[in-house]
Please model this.
Amino acid sequence: MQNPRRLAAEALLRIERGGYPNLVLPSLLAHSGLSPRERAFATRITYGATERRRMLDARLSPYLKKPLSRLDAEVRAVLRAGLYQILYMDVVPVPVAVNESVKLVRAMGKSSAAGMVNAVLRRAAGPWQPVFESELQRLAVQYSVSDEIAALLWRSYGPGAEKILGASYETPRLVVRVNTLRGSAEKLQQLLQQQGITTRKTALPDALELLDAGDVTALEAFQAGLFHVQGLASQFAVQQLGVQPGQRVVDLCAAPGGKAATMAQQMQNTGELLCGDSASGRLSLIESLFNRLGVSCASVQRHDATRPFAAGQGAHRVLCDVPCSGLGVLAKKPDIRYKDLKDLPGLIETQKKILEQGAALLLVGGRLVYSTCTVNPAENGAVVRDFLAQNPGFRLCEIVPEIEGARREDGMVTFLPGEADTDGFFVASLERVW
Model:
């Protein structure tokens, strides 16, 4: 049987080598033999040490004789995991965290570092009074993001950047979309209540917040296809399309399929829903979701959304949920925190191309939604304004309903973490008028 601390350290090693936490951790847990409680313990260390890595390194570094980057990777992983337990897991007493870290570094074949791990963790656990060269450096280190991300958020939101970054440490709400092809919100609430799960209605119809649900994939209602997990802002974006039964609808960047599934439900499984994605390995995720939910009006195919999509011509509705920097979902994807953003100019060009291709599919009177899960204005309002300036046959549509905390500007909506109780998200709805 695997030790949860050892598993977390192994996960941190793989993540440091370029692995994604949401892929690495399930792979290691699958055959670990750990109990549910141990799995939760390992998961918390893995995600916590990843999302706070820069701050942990800043606290460890003063007590090291050589740079952290020159230590063996296994030692780095143990130090980060150990200090995270000390600082953020009240259930772990400091002596236990230190002693278990010493045992772990030995078990990972680095016995020569045992004394150093012991001393460094005990010292790093003490008071911390850092001196920062600038406000940007403080933001970057305190909230464990790259210098580039801290600078972008400061340029865009000034002191409000701190609220956005602070919210990235909060546990995201668990919101699900009721599968109206198989039942109502009321029936799902009753079923979940019988299983001891509390639900709350949200500002959107058929969107429920689940409290203390644990692993939702293990729930009978999930396996029966009565709901799928989809954030409130994501559902809000789909709602702006105003999808109707019998329409021809295109989702250009569909994987993993949550937005498309919601559209299929709004279409009442009638009409035609065309789902494309450029990554062939992600198409099976969409198909698997559709099978579980009973979606039959949709087809899935590999397609590069920056290129013409002949099959989607004559669409009543088009969703362009474009690839983006992901700065609105740091709380869910801690690996994003350390992006250097060097690919941002190319990414914005890709977003513009997808918007142009999506617009080319629309019938007159048709509607398109452009959305992202970032809070970077250059990927959001700037892209839409540039498109409108070059395409006078399109206009912005009214955005409804009001969501508490959402920022509205020129008919576009931005959800900022710390202001709106959702993921960071951007939504603009466009209509083709001629």
Residues 4-124 form a domain with the N-utilizing Substance Protein B Homolog; Chain A fold (CATH 1.10.940.10). The two ends are 65 Å apart (CA to CA). The chain has a mean pLDDT of 96. Residues 117 and 401 are 54 Å apart (CA to CA).
